[in-house]
Amino acid sequence: MAPPGSLMRVAYMERGGRAREQCGRPASSENEIRGSAIMKPASKSCSESSEQDKYDLTVCEKCGHGDSEQEMLLCDGCDRGFHMFCLCPVLVTLPVGDWFCPLCSPTALVYEFPKVQKKIVDFFRILKPFHQVSPGCGEVRKRRRQSGGSLCRQKKSRRLLPYIPCSDPHRRLEQMASLATALTSVGVSFTDKLLYSFAPRMANTARLEKGGMQSMGKEDKGTLEACKAMCSRGEWPPLMVTHDSRQGFVVEADRHIKDMTIICEYTGEVDFMRHRTHDEGNSIMGLLFTEDPDEELVICPDKCGNIARFISGINNHSPEGKKKQNLRCVRYDVDGEARVLLIAIRDIPQGERLYYDYNAFQKEYPTQHFV
Ligand SMILES: C[S@@+](CC[C@H](N)C(=O)[O-])C[C@H]1O[C@@H](n2cnc3c(N)ncnc32)[C@H](O)[C@@H]1O
Q1: Do 142 and 174 lie in a common domain?
Q2: Concatenated DSSP letters for 28-81?
Q3: Ligand 1 binding site (Cβ under 6 Å of any ligand atom)
């Protein structure tokens, strides 16, 4: 069986390799990765000495230090230096092409989505207008189980639970507006499905997974479908997106969430990994890992996606980081199609930030600077 976790992917290693080749050269229009990878030059020639001095004096505008030059970016607008890990959010890939610092690219500001019901309904293409969610919503299956089996059997089966929306429609509107704010700010439209415009649906054949992929059972499939149906009716998962000065957009539990609850599916466009090796996205998710690398698939939420793309990663180089993990990213074979779900791995109190391990079984995503 494949390891349970899926992983967030970045083209960091390749990009980093190319970047280091550029060391010793100041920015020039001929440089393919101009600006992005302009680290301080490593060696000095006579003609380059004044440029060299300039780079030697460069310090990060955020922390004031000039160390970690391999991760120091120079802005193509103002020439100021910034550590990749001092940026908000932390930059994990070297940008391709020109890079402009936060002072030169005010477009990075958060755009607050209006809390207007009609606009929110249109943004998420909600099928039904807002209505009161009954207190038992999302608990139908739980009631059935209570009447049918012993507690002992319930614990053993470890079935997935549907999320339980907040009953207050105004609060749900706020939750949805918070996601619309985040999606709009990063230029992404909403989808709650996997989309197949780059790779065909038939390429996503779960049985091609190296070592096999766990199949989702009938009952869990029903739970997943119930979550999808709730979402399409505006019975939103109890999650709030907020903005953090170090992490960028983050997601918090907006009510108590039980262990084994489905938080969301990871959605976006499905593409072949080979098409995305030079992609700048920091939210690419592994979907299918096959014997033939050409057949490997990823989910790319850079144009369309949902709340999953905003959930934080733990720093898996530190014990404190590991303690924060409250979700697991799990890949399932659902009727032959590989899907990625984020699932609570313990009870999560209201207000707690959601975290999972971006590196569940491969160690490609650099999280050493994560907070
Ligand atoms: C999948 S995105 C998460 C959404 C992101 N926060 C945003 O605003 O778009 C992954 C990126 O979020 C940031 N991030 C996620 N978890 C973090 C953490 N624990 N500490 C610092 N930055 C984090 C990093 O910039 C990372 O590359």
Answers
A1: yes
A2: -TT-TTTTTT-PPPSS--GGGHHHHHHHHT--BTTT-----GGGEEE-TTT--E
A3: 89-90, 92, 186, 246-249, 282-283, 309-310, 312-313, 315, 370-371
